UniProtKB/TrEMBL annotation:
Upper classification of the organism: Eukaryota, Metazoa, Chordata, Craniata, Vertebrata
Pfam families: DUF1899 (PF08953), WD40 (PF00400), WD40_4 (PF16300)
Coiled-coil positions: 395-422
GO biological process, one term: actin filament organization
PROSITE patterns found in the cross-reference section: WD_REPEATS_1, WD_REPEATS_2, WD_REPEATS_REGION
Encoding gene, per UniProt annotation: CORO6
Gene Ontology MF terms in the entry: actin filament binding
WD repeat locations: 77-111, 127-169
Start and end residues of each DUF1899 domain: 4-68
Protein name stated in the entry: Coronin
Alphabetical keyword list: Coiled coil, Repeat, WD repeat
Superkingdom field: Eukaryota
Family, per entry: Belongs to the WD repeat coronin family.
Length: 431
């Protein structure tokens, strides 16, 4: 009679617990979190939450260091003319976030380290190319400034945010609405799920589907019978997948291995209140001194509640087995290198001494002069005085002057915000 071998795992006893009340972001009276927002976007500096705002599109950015009650006049990031459907922080710049909207555009924003006094209304760049709502955006994991968007027009578009250009358009690959998109580790391939019930692995640079609708799954795990949207989060460093159901009140987590049966159930975190959405902190934003291996940000109607997952250890020393080197904030490639066919592994960093977020790094967009791509104009038979004055050099001078004025306005805006912050401190008696 054979004896069943129980697999032992260092993650067998992973404990999840909510943080203390004063460490939540609560009483968010600006507006309710939208039901369309299935998650919030999190990085080591900020948490961003999509909100409803007068029929337009907006989201709120909260510094992780500032918790507690959120003022009703807290500034928003606004600019879209229709609801925001997706947001994603740039993996290579903690102060840059992209947003996708029902208004068919994608906008990229620079978020200051200080809390602005007014709404942020001017994006760094607006990306226009979709003909219908844009529901999905995701940054390339290793190439600088490469962003992918998927819209209701069943198109995938890759952008160079640094120039505001469209790099690639992937059409005729999906016959129905695209549900989700994910890159592989190096960004050489991407996988999509679609309403037509097909899973596609795509090589974007060759613009072709390399695999589609696999015949048999290597493992099948039945979760429950509810029809809520399932939100999966995968940690490649620990090979743990966390499954959160929208409208559910639990988080189930499993370890993935290369040997059969491949999927190993670990445990379930349960709470009393259901989640409207969920965010997942990148590994470099965790507290390694407390053996924290995952941190979620659970969206309620009027609060955002962090939930930490820890592996209890008796020693206070750094746990090497829990924290292998992880992808850091530096890109491994430039956009042009990736487009030319080059691939690279992410640049890894050690978490031994903890991760300290970098200071605000400005994203500069350098647009190419469209006049350089136009053929020379054929001389006309007659020229008016107005036509002669409006020559190509004068137009370039005008564009340069507009750029200079815009930089001056942005500098003055920052100076005004700094002064308002100082005045606010004096008014509150904190300075």
């Amino acid at each position: 009679m054979s004896r069943r071998v129980v697999r032992q795992s260092k993650f067998r006893h992973v404990f999840g617990q909510p943080v203390k009340a004063d460490q939540m972001y609560e009483d968010i009276r600006v507006s309710k979190v939208t039901w369309d927002s299935s998650f919030c976007a999190v990085n080591p500096k900020f948490v961003a939450i999509i909100v409803e705002s007068g029929g337009g599109g907006a989201f709120m950015v909260l510094p992780l260091a500032k918790t507690g009650r959120v003022d009703k006049n807290y500034p928003l990031v606004t600019g879209h003319t229709a609801p925001v459907l997706d947001i994603d922080w740039c993996p290579h710049n903690d102060n840059v976030i992209a947003s996708a909207s029902e208004d068919t555009t994608v906008m990229v924003w620079q978020i200051p380290d200080y809390v602005p006094m007014r709404n942020i209304t001017e994006p760094i760049v607006t990306l226009e190319g979709h003909s219908k709502r844009v529901g999905i955006i995701t940054w390339h994991p290793t190439a600088r400034n490469v962003l992918l968007s998927a819209g209701g027009d069943n198109l995938l578009i890759l952008w160079n945010v640094g120039t505001g250009e469209m790099l690639l358009t992937l059409g005729d690959m999906h016959s129905d609405l695209i549900y989700n998109v994910c890159w592989n580790r190096t960004g050489s391939l991407l996988v999509t799920t679609c309403k037509d019930k097909h899973v596609r692995v795509i090589d974007p640079r060759k613009q072709q589907v390399v695999a589609e609708n696999f015949e048999e799954p290597i493992a099948l795990q039945e979760m429950d019978t509810s029809n809520g949207v399932l939100l999966p989060f995968y940690d490649p460093d620990s090979s743990i997948v966390y499954l959160c159901g929208k409208g559910d009140s639990s988080i189930r987590y499993f370890e993935i291995t290369a040997e059969a049966p491949y999927v190993h159930y670990l445990s379930t975190y349960s709470s009393k209140e259901p989640q409207r959405g969920m965010g997942f902190m990148p590994k470099r934003g965790l507290d390694v001194s407390k053996c924290e291996i995952a941190r979620f940000f659970k969206l309620h109607e009027r609060k955002c509640e962090p939930i930490v997952m820890t592996v209890p250890r008796k020693s206070d020393l750094f746990q090497d087995d829990l924290y292998p080197d992880t992808p850091g904030p530096e890109p491994a490639l430039e956009a042009a290198e990736w487009l030319a066919g080059k691939d690279a592994e992410p640049i890894l960093v050690s978490l031994r001494d903890g991760y300290v977020p970098l200071k605000n790094r400005e994203l500069k967009v350098t647009r190419k002069n469209i006049l350089d791509n136009k053929p020379p104009m054929v001389p006309r038979r007659s020229h008016s005085t107005c036509d002669a004055n409006f020559s190509r050099p004068s137009l370039e001078d005008l564009l340069e002057e507009i750029r200079s004025l815009r930089q001056t306005v942005q500098a003055q805006e920052k100076r005004i915000s700094d002064l308002e912050n100082k005045l606010c401190k004096f008014t509150n008696g904190t300075a």
